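Lab notebook, bench 4. The sequencing result for the construct came back, and we need a structural model before the next group meeting so we can plan mutations. Quick request posted to the team channel:

Model the 3D structure of this chain.
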Amino acid sequence: MRQPNARIYQRVSTKAQDLTRQDALRAEAEAKGYKVVATYSEKESGTTEKRPELQRMLADLNEGDIIIAEHLDRITRLPMDKAEALMGQIKAKGATVSVPGLIDLPTAADGMTGIVMESMQAMLLKMALYQCRADWETRRERQRQGIEVAKAKGAYRGRKPDTVANAKIVELRAIGYTIAKVASTLNVSESQVKLILKKAKEEKAA
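Done. Here's the predicted structure in token form:
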């Protein structure tokens, strides 16, 4: 019997975080009889689909593949419609998602048992997708409220600009890099690239 293929997706949101805590997923998958054919690791926000490794994984998917992540929010924190569309892409490839403790590595089941298991997992997945986004929105709102309180007290100074990274954005754009390529090269969002370029243009014109 052929070993089912597993693809591990690892993501953190900032460069300060590391991915080593998720390495145990490979050992767990192999212990359950899965063949890990690839690991996709990146430091990007889960609120965007424009993640190079996520897109590479989607392109690599084959029928019967299992995507394994530490938590579902590692795969997505997208709004519900986009999160469901992402899951639809995975399903269209004949692949499934496994999150230990939530949607476990699937086991073979026939007939009515298989139908019930599939329905329960679909329901759990939908609830979890909603919760991933809700948690992110709650955290953002608390951050916003905290900033407003700090501003009212005169204690908020904002983030210090990363002048080195900002200069690199301007430099890469000047030598012909597209905005998308600058963002990918420096591991920042396209909106951040556009903002820095706009500020640089305004400073130059001043």
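Residues 112-117 have pLDDT under 50 and may be disordered.
Will bring this to the meeting.
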